Amino acid sequence: MACDVCRNLNCPGVESDVAQSFLIVSLPRCYESCLYVPCYYRNQVISLISLWKDEASEDGFEDEDFDLVFSTTEELSYKIKFTDGNHRSKFHGPGWEKLIRDYDLFYGDIIQLDLQAEDFFFPIDLMLSESRGGYKAFPKPSVDRLKIPAIVTNDLRMKLGYLPLKGSMRLVQIFSSLDFPGTYCIHKDGRMAITGISAFADAARLTVDCVVLIGIQWHTVRGEDSLSLVIIGLYKKTE
Predict the structure, then answer these.
(1) DSSP assignment, residue 21?
(2) DSSP letters of 141-191?
């Protein structure tokens, strides 16, 4: 049953005086354009954002500079508008709509905001609804970034003996002769971010229901070393 005030499912319709560490909510029917802050969390969210605005004003920032940022675990960031009305508050704007598209989110999927955040920056987690499998949500292959886990990056560094923090790379699929340019950089947490992946994903027919076996290796082309991400196998996901 949706709340008459904030339109969220299973909301008691009252505000809480107890501080929460996380805001957890299932996306309501209006999810494509906005997310209304559940009544239960509204006081805390308003107080937190007001505090940030006061601190920013003291540092000389203008009111129009006060956009929030939602940052996913894949390190994709989205500028989010926040509007506080007489009876309800909402997150919205082009950044919100892009987040929904990038992660292919639907009604009932779950978003979790860290309410211990700082300086307009909200770390978020995204999960699919139980009816869609209940798995962690990931960006679609069309989003132009791929993350390689730190454990893989560290193993790669040990095997190669040398791995610059950033550089160019080739995106290769050996069984269909695809070869696209890309770039990579290694973040402080050890994860490798690869950009230029969207055109390659389209050409290689990568979809969310594919399992991809990849290798990362050095190649020497015209006397210069180049890092390559190589698709060795591409499989249809089985149930």
Answers:
(1) S
(2) TTSSEEEE-HHHHHHHHHHHS---SEEEEEEEETTTTEEEEEEEEE-TTSP
Rg (alpha carbons) of the chain, rounded to whole number:
21
Q: Which of 195, 215, 183, 231 is nearest to 74 (CA)?
A: 195
Rounded CA-CA distance 41/20 in Å is 8
Q: Distance from first CA to last CA of the chain, Å, rounded?
A: 32
Q: Let me know if residue 90 belongs to a domain.
A: yes
- Measured CA to CA, the distance from residue 76 to residue 191 in angstroms comes to 13
Domain that holds residue 59: 22-132
Q: How far apart are CA 186 and CA 174, in angstroms?
A: 25
Q: Are 124 and 137 in contact (CB under 8 A)?
A: no
One domain, residues 49 and 118:
yes
**Whether residue 216 sits in one domain with residue 152:** yes
0.70 cut: is pTM over it? no
CATH of the domain at 157: 2.40.330
Q: Is 119 exposed, middle or buried (0-12, 13-18, 19+ CB in 10 A)?
A: exposed
pLDDT in tens, the chain (239 residues): 678 778 887 776 666 666 788 899 999 888 899 999 998 888 899 998 888 888 877 766 665 556 788 988 877 788 899 998 888 899 999 999 989 998 999 999 999 999 888 878 888 999 999 998 888 888 776 566 677 788 888 887 887 777 778 777 778 776 677 788 777 778 777 888 777 777 777 777 766 556 666 677 666 555 556 677 776 655 555 44
